[in-house]
């Protein structure tokens, strides 16, 4: 994997600018604030990709809320040998029973991780579970899960930035862009 | 074996037709999504006597999601054939949910999971793992639906009724393989005769 030092050179096209993202996050925050007024909201950020989105979204929600972080292992990882089952690498730090949980994701494509996560969290008896994702890539969907709050529906392209990575790189780009094929084919 | 067993790890007892299918099964296992490999063969073309001329067995059925998945990572000629079969399947069985997973979808999946280096060996002709030991799509179908829904079963005893497929969705085929082959020969002869005249 060959990464340009400025990162931006590896991006073929800016799909969502910093300004577009900020405006949409503000909208989502307003909607969530209205929908969850008077309720016990916990935002659950799914590491690592949703971290920038979570940080911005929570500051656009005008309600008392709790935040928590989870990390789920991804298929394949860095090994060429794949085996075993999905694992919770980092679990919630506080109980969620009786609380209204909003899962904060960076992107939903196949829905496999989210499907697992929802099943797992349901076992902790929350009052409700809903999903907020910055990006939705429906063309790749295998598991149909209703996404209650969607930032942007995006085309079927490999995107990086604003938390999204390729090989753990590009997360710190301030925009969402389409990665040049040379960056992942090399 | 039922779909629920998929949570117990990879099941290599299936004779996958293609390496990409084995990899896809591993991914579903990883995320604890129950699946069955080619549990149902759907007749999609009959002759005038009602004999099955062509059938289609989607690669995977995900019972919890009520979704069939067909992977196609082979050459374009076969993709066109699969597209046609899926179109036909949707026409005949509109209640079924089926997703065709193309080579580009598989590549994207491998890229997402950091396994892009494996794409070439899991895709296309290289990914084929030899003669298919299991039921396959065929012009000479081995239809495994022996009766009304619930009476038949796949290689793991996959019950069409358990798949949520009713008798109206699955047209049973009771003829023997020889009878079907005779019917196909008759249909081919009739087609040749019609073309000649």
Structure report:
The complex is a heterodimer of chains A (186) and B (197). With 186 residues, chain A is α/β, with parallel strands linked by helices. Chain A has four helices and nine strands; from the N terminus they run E-H-E-H-E-E-E-H-E-E-E-E-H. Chain A has helices at residues 18-35, 51-58, 112-122, 181-185; strands spanning 11-16, 41-47, 65-72, 88-90, 100-108, 128-136, 149-153, 159-160, 176-179. A six-stranded mixed sheet of chain A has the order 4-3-2-5-6-7, with helices on both faces. In chain A, helix 2 links the parallel strand 2 (41-47) and strand 3. Chain A starts with 10 loop residues before the first strand and ends with a helix. The model of chain A is unreliable at 78-82 (pLDDT under 50). Chain B contains five helices and six strands. In chain B, strands 1-4-5-6 form a four-stranded mixed sheet. Mean pLDDT of chain B is 67; it is low at 1-9, 129-164 and 166-177. Chain B has helices at residues 19-30, 76-92, 103-112, 119-122, 177-196, and strands spanning 36-37, 42-46, 52-56, 60-62, 67-72, 98-102. The termini of chain B are far apart. Chain B is an alpha+beta fold and 197 residues long. The interface between A and B is medium-sized, with 28 and 28 residues.
Task: Please tag this protein with its features.
heterodimer; A: 186 residues; alpha/beta; three-stranded antiparallel beta sheet; 4 helices; B: 197 residues; alpha+beta; four-stranded mixed beta sheet; two-stranded antiparallel sheet; 5 helices; disordered N terminus
Topology of helices and strands:
The complex is a heterodimer of chains A (186) and B (197).
Chain A: E1 11-16, H1 18-35, E2 41-47, H2 51-58, E3 65-72, E4 88-90, E5 100-108, H3 112-122, E6 128-136, E7 149-153, E8 159-160, E9 176-179, H4 181-185
Parallel strand pairs in A: 2-3, 2-5, 5-6, 6-7
Antiparallel strand pairs in A: 1-9, 3-4, 8-9
Helix pairs in contact in A: 1-2
Chain B: H1 19-30, E1 36-37, E2 42-46, E3 52-56, E4 60-62, E5 67-72, H2 76-92, E6 98-102, H3 103-112, H4 119-122, H5 177-196
Parallel strand pairs in B: 5-6
Antiparallel strand pairs in B: 1-4, 2-3, 4-5
């Amino acid at each position: 994997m060959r990464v340009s030092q400025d990162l931006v050179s590896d991006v073929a096209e800016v799909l969502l600018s910093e300004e577009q993202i900020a405006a949409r996050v503000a909208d989502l925050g307003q909607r969530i604030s209205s929908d969850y007024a008077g309720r016990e909201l916990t935002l659950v950020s799914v590491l690592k990709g949703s971290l920038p989105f979570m940080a911005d979204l929570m500051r656009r929600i005008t309600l008392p809320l709790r935040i928590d972080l989870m990390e789920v292992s991804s298929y394949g990882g860095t090994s060429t040998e794949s085996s075993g089952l999905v694992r919770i690498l980092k679990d919630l730090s506080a109980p969620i029973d009786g609380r209204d949980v909003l899962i904060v994701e960076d992107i939903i494509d196949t829905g496999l991780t989210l499907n697992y996560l929802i099943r797992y969290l349901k076992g902790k008896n929350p009052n409700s579970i809903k999903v907020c994702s910055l990006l939705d890539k429906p063309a790749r969907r295998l598991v149909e899960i209703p996404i209650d709050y969607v930032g942007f529906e995006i085309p079927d392209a490999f995107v990086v930035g604003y938390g999204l990575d390729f090989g753990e790189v590009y997360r710190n780009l301030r925009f969402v862009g389409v990665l040049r094929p040379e960056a992942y084919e090399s | 074996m039922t779909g629920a067993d998929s949570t117990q790890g990879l099941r290599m007892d299936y004779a996958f037709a293609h390496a990409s299918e084995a990899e896809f099964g591993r991914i579903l296992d990883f995320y604890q999504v129950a699946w069955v490999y080619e549990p149902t063969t759907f007749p999609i073309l009959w002759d005038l006597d009602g004999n099955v001329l062509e059938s289609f067995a989607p690669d995977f059925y995900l019972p919890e999601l009520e979704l069939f998945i067909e992977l196609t990572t082979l050459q374009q000629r076969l993709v066109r054939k699969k597209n046609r079969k899926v179109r036909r399947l949707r026409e005949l069985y509109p209640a079924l949910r089926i997703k065709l997973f193309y080579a580009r979808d598989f590549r994207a999946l491998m890229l997402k999971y950091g396994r892009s280096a494996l794409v070439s060996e899991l895709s296309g002709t290289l990914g084929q793992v030899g003669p298919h030991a299991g039921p396959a799509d065929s012009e000479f179908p081995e239809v495994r639906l022996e009766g009304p829904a619930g009476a038949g079963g796949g290689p793991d005893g996959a019950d069409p009724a358990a798949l949520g497929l009713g008798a109206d969705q699955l047209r049973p085929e009771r003829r023997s393989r020889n009878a079907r082959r005779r019917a196909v020969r008759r249909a081919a002869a009739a087609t040749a005769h019609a073309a000649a005249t």
